[in-house]
Amino acid sequence: MADLKLLEREMRGWRRDLHAHPEFGFEEKRTSAFVAAKLREFGLDVAEGVGGTGVVGTLRRGNGNRAVALRADMDALRIPEQGALEYRSQNPGVMHACGHDGHTTMLLGAAKLLTEDGGFDGTVRFIFQPAEEWGKGALAMLDDGLMERFPFEEIYGLHNMPGLPVGHFETRAGAIMSAEDNFEIVLKGVGGHAARPHAANEVLVAACALVTNLQTIVSRRLSPADIGVVSVTELLTDGTRNALSGLARILGDARSFRPEVSADIEKQMRVIAEGTALTYNVSAEVTYTREFVPLLNDAALVEEAFAAARTVFEPDHIATAREPMTGSEDFARFLEHVPGCFVFLGNGRDSATLHNPAYDFNDAGLIHGALFHAAIVRQRLPAD
Length: 384
Ligand SMILES: [Zn+2]
Ligand SMILES: [Zn+2]
What we know:
The protein is of the alpha/beta class. The protein is built from ten helices and 16 strands. The strands form four sheets. An eight-stranded mixed sheet has the order 1-2-4-3-5-16-6-15, with helices on both faces. Strand 3 (67-73), helix 3 and strand 4 form a beta-alpha-beta unit. Helix 2 (29-42) runs parallel beside helix 3. The two termini are 18 Å apart. 48% of the residues are buried. The model has no long low-confidence stretch (mean pLDDT 97). Bound molecules: zinc ion (ZN) (2 copies).
């Protein structure tokens, strides 16, 4: 049996090494080389360069022909790290502010546990994906033939959760994380002298009205039973102190848990943009893109995940998440191909929030992630 204390110490070393060398999405060269080297050292079959910088490790035991996949994300964010950790980022302006250094380490720990101790019959795919934060890495691996080259029937993933105590586990059936759509509305008119608005056809007043009108999409167009968010995040114009703007760009972000809601938001946004532009005698052009799909957990596999969690966590530290999160996760792309389950593990009550420059993954939770990954494999690919 693997020495868990030793594994915990090793994992802490790996995690801090990864934390000190964060890499942005699709630039995870050192990270993926680190992952591939460790997997080879443990004795797995390793494929590199899957979907850019993705890595897939394969481990087989016994004669079982079923395959289960476990997935971790490897990328960091363009956020300058605050604080004085001894293992702080050595890549200026880039940091592991979402704990993907921890997720990668947990999955490596699971690979080591499962190679040393086995306890399953079948095939395990260890998927290390690039560019989760972009919402592009999972698609890149899928487009590179992930399902054909490394087939599997179900998949599991996890994310650390600030605010939830270390050693606590949560998930829920159905929607657990939201879709993310992005939009840009360009208003065009004719700029001019600030003292002569009647001689111009400026766009700023129209843009302000449009920002206000967009607030009615959720409040007046969506069913009260549906969850939706429409946030305008930027309003940029080409005006200056004494010149009226002829061009305005409104950018923002919309969240939802059902494709129908996302479609309704886009439809109503186009109606409002056109109507407002008409009112102010300017033109409007809407660009609406879907960046992340909603993350929908399979109800039966959620029960399997809870059962596996009971072998790792205290019974009263396992809970059903009360509500879905309006954050988004690239893991959802894999669930368009096979059923699976995504879970949350506590990063501590005092943890800074995700994407905060003072955030740090809590090493006390590393072993729980490794043990949970191993437990779900043993449960879904039983050795007897
Ligand atoms: Zn993130
Ligand atoms: Zn993340």
